[in-house]
TrEMBL record:
DNA-binding region: 66-85
Keywords linked to the UniProt accession: DNA-binding, Transcription, Transcription regulation
Organism domain of life: Bacteria
InterPro entries: DNA-bd_HTH_TetR-type_CS, Homeodomain-like_sf, HTH-type_TetR-like_transc_reg, HTH_TetR, Tet_transcr_reg_TetR-rel_C_sf, TetR_C_16
Protein name according to UniProt: TetR/AcrR family transcriptional regulator
Domain HTH tetR-type: 43-103
Native species: Actinomadura fibrosa
Keyword NAD: no
Pfam families cross-referenced by the UniProt entry: TetR_C_16, TetR_N
Length: 232
């Protein structure tokens, strides 16, 4: 259903309606009480929609899910999905950003970043069943409707936080190189599977990945030897 059609519908905002068993507010109710209940209910409805969307996108992929399915699973009015999130693609992007553990992995001591990224990568390899974010990416990557959401996710959750951790020249290029290692696991997982990686010794795999991330994030030898290279 398009946004114009939804916008023309006369809908009842069911999250602000009181259950039949609860009497309407009396004249003695305070203004604060009248505002608090709808706010709490809006937040709860929004959370239900996000949870339902996460599960459905993870199970069926972006193409296999409709706004009607999400609304039904969340026990919410279809109009509320569009009102709170604007579109299915925007909802997908919010689910994607909210599910990622990478924000916490990247934050912290910059010197320990390569090791943290390596440990995160190995955790994702060993995790069974795959995490919600892994399922979302596996089943939805390549869809043109979610391209912008995926680009925004990559920028805001991966690239920009890594750039903020780096000193020296060309921080974005180094962050993109590390991001290639992080995100490149998806195609390998989808096409070749992870059995060989799961069979490897986790400690050795973590050490190898730490070396890879360290090399990707380090300033180039030329820039370290020539301070003027930073200005070029």
């Amino acid at each position: 259903m398009t946004g114009d059609v939804v916008g023309s519908m006369v809908t009842r905002v069911d999250e602000t309606a009181l259950p039949p068993s609860v009497p309407p507010a009396t004249a003695g109710s305070t203004a604060g009480e009248g505002r608090e209940r709808p706010k709490r209910n809006r937040e709860a409805t929004r959370r239900r929609i996000l949870d339902a969307a996460r599960d459905l996108f993870g199970e069926h992929g972006y193409d296999g899910v409709t706004v009607r399915m999400i609304a039904a699973a969340a026990e919410a009015n279809m109009a509320l999905v569009n009102r709170y999130f604007g579109s299915k693609a925007a909802l997908f992007g919010e689910v994607l950003a909210g599910e990622s553990a990478l924000r916490g992995v990247i934050a912290g001591d910059p010197d320990g970043l390569p090791r943290r990224l390596a440990e995160h990568f190995v955790r994702q390899v060993d995790r069974q069943p795959p995490s919600a974010i892994t399922r979302l990416l596996d089943r939805s990557a390549g869809n043109p409707e979610v391209k912008q959401a995926l680009l925004q996710y990559l920028e805001e959750v991966v690239v920009e936080p890594i750039v903020a951790q780096l000193d020296g020249p060309a921080p974005r290029a180094r962050a993109l190189l590390a991001s290639t290692i992080i995100m490149g696991g998806g195609p390998v997982r989808r096409l070749l599977g992870l059995n060989d990686l799961r069979a490897a010794d986790p400690a050795e795999l973590t050490d190898r990945l730490t070396a890879m991330f360290t090399a990707a994030l380090a300033p180039s030898p030329a820039s370290r030897e020539d301070p003027a290279a930073t200005e070029r």
